[in-house]
Specification:
The protein is an alpha+beta fold. The chain contains 8 helices and 4 strands, in the order βαβββααααααα. It has a 4-stranded mixed beta sheet, covered by helices on one side. Helix 3 (92-118) packs parallel to helix 6.
Length: 205
């Protein structure tokens, strides 16, 4: 059986968990809880992923897989034929991969903001750095609102899952920053998407 190293607060791991639920593969993966930060790895799976990041997927055969986009692509390839095609064929797949990369970029910036607060002493924190990361997030959200709503409203794909998890992480860690303001279409889509059983089953806690 495959083993997924994860944390219930990791939005990257949540992407993988949502995919498992949506494709009916939850029983094929054992979950192994891990925790840590870049300066204190604690129980992070450094043997499986030398970068010490979540998620990491150990397989009975072959190398461990890491980076959520590698893992989701792999697990999507194992999904039964009756499951949704989360990575359909070209040319649509390029839009899905770009949408997923945009969502992951939002998460990258949000994690840098989070680590600035939880890993640095207060006198060494940079407010300018934090706001610079939030500016990346805000630009990306504006782009989703302006250019990607038609795709988000389309058939279920990995790009939608990634965006849903990214927005969920903003609510979880940055509730004081109202990302919905000025983005009614994106906010309305998120309100519907989060009601999916897979999203409800993987809420961060």
């Amino acid at each position: 059986m495959m083993k997924l190293h994860y944390s219930p607060t990791s939005p990257y791991a949540r992407k993988v968990l949502v995919l498992l639920h949506e494709t009916g593969q939850t029983d094929s993966v054992e979950l192994a809880f891990a925790t840590g930060t870049p300066i204190d790895p604690q129980s992070m799976p450094v043997a499986a992923n030398p970068l010490g990041k979540l998620p990491a997927l150990e397989r009975p055969e072959g190398c461990a897989l890491y980076d959520s986009r590698v893992i989701t692509r792999y697990l999507a390839s194992l999904a039964p034929a009756t499951a949704p095609a989360l990575y359909p064929d070209s040319p649509r797949v390029w839009e899905i991969l770009t949408l997923e990369a945009t969502a992951d970029g939002i998460l990258d910036a949000a994690l840098l903001m989070r680590y600035e607060v939880v890993t640095r002493p207060e006198d060494k924190r940079s407010a300018e750095w934090v706001e610079g990361q939030w500016a990346k997030i805000a630009r990306s959200l504006d782009t989703l609102e302006a250019r990607w709503m038609g795709h988000l409203e389309g058939p279920l794909c990995m790009g939608q899952i990634a965006v849903g998890c990214a927005l969920g992480y903003l609510d979880f860690r940055f509730a004081d920053r109202p990302w919905r303001t000025g983005r009614p279409a994106l906010a309305g889509w998120e309100a519907r998407f989060v009601q999916r059983a897979s999203m409800q089953a993987t809420l961060p806690a």
